[in-house]
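Minutes, project check-in

Agenda point 3 was the complex the collaborators sent over. CS summarized: two entities, 233 residues total, and the question is how they sit relative to each other. Sequences were read into the notes so everyone works from the same version.
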Amino acid sequence: MGRTNPIVIADAGPIIHLDELGYLNLLADFDEVLVPEAVWLEVERHRPLALKAVKDWLVRQPLGQHSAVVSALTPLYSLHAGEQEALHLCVEFGDCLLLTDDTAARLAAKSLNIAAHGTLGVLIRAIRRQRLTKVEVLALLDAVPKQTTLHVRPALLREVIANVEANAD
Amino acid sequence: MTTLQTQIPDQLIQQAQYLVQQGWVANIDDLIAEAMRRYLESHREAMTEQFIREDVDWGLHGQD
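CS then shared the predicted structure for the full assembly.
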């Protein structure tokens, strides 16, 4: 399958969690993924090797315009620097997909009509996009609590796995 | 700051105004912001789970 082409902007969570699983390259299925400067620095702090290799689909993106609405939402949702920059860029670029595992960032994105999804969505999407098999993704979902710092309530993760087993092609 | 226009039941706003008059909070704006903060905090776990379910649906059936 070919790549898709929404403007994708990543927060630190999905980059870190996919790297922890050894599957950061799933983001290569997007034309390019913009990584805000503050997010880049955050990932470098937590996963020093993740961004070392040159990856042309990961683009270090300096912040351009500040959005007054994002600035207004920042204290309400207690947004961190990376989340703020990611949302500022989403507003600046318009029709974007924000990748984040942070609930506050997703709430803020929702209030701004910005589509947002997280690590689990990217993993499951890989089946639909024929990047990974269902068996491979089920194994990765099962590995999330052991291999990553992404926290998902065990019963919810079991529900997710059962859903994928039943409904993925 | 963002200005919101909303409809609030009379009884609720009267209770809020009473708290402002009694000095518990500086003004209605601060009270509403604090109420929103508390609501968001108390519902964060449920929202996190809702977002994960939305991720699963997007992963399985999304168009992008």
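Noted in discussion: Chain B touches chain A through 21 residues (CB under 8 Å).
Follow-up: revisit at the next meeting once the mutant set is ready.
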